[in-house]
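Minimal example, chain plus calcium ion.
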Amino acid sequence: MSEDRPHILLVEDELHLARGMTFNLEEEGYRVSHAETGEAALELLAFNRFALIILDVMLPGMDGFTVCREVRGADPRVPILILSARSEEGDRISGLDSGADDYLTKPFNLSEFLLRVKGMLRRSSWYRPEPVEEGYRFGDNEVFLLSYHARTAQGEIDLTELEIRMLALFFRNEGKTVTRSNLLETVWGYSSETETRTLDNFIVRLRKYFEPDSSHPVFFQTVRGVGYRFARHGAPGARCEKRAG
Ligand code: CA
């Protein structure tokens, strides 16, 4: 048994579904631990490190969103994929609000599910230990890509693996428009535009972290119909007047 296989935690109370998913994930070469409840998942998380967490929302006892928040408290980086039985937008948004990186609505297609798992598991190419890291500054923010951490006007925050991927892509392309498909491919590993709202909800999250006024973004700008652009010095005419400190 090779231990370098990515170890996935699957939290799902429907046993027939959990068995099917476990079988297919193992066929793909992953190691899978299964928990039937949120409480059992948190117990496993106390003693194990996982490469990915797949989390059903509707669980007996503690619900998936609560589990998600608890997990984020303990491990801010690990990618979390939410499985939602309901297709309401409200569910999706509260999933991303609670710190998840993507969601999939049940019933889902198996190959779509496996593609997402594969995409989310790609390790960041910039993930390597470095003794001293210089932060990337913009506005009142400083982002540390290697340590998954940022200082913002609102205080210190931890960033998830996928948030780091997105920020690194924006920083590399500072001032240029990044297309939706490029973002989906680089951050989530998707080759096609499937659930595009995930991307928009993710941008909303970044704006909440980093924009002086998230309803009037100056750094993470929408390029209508194309994608998004990161402007390190803010939008022209909307430059931040206030200075840090
Ligand atoms: Ca369930």
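Residues 13-14, 56, 58-59 surround calcium ion (CB under 6 Å). The domain at 2-120 is CATH 3.40.50.2300 (Rossmann fold).
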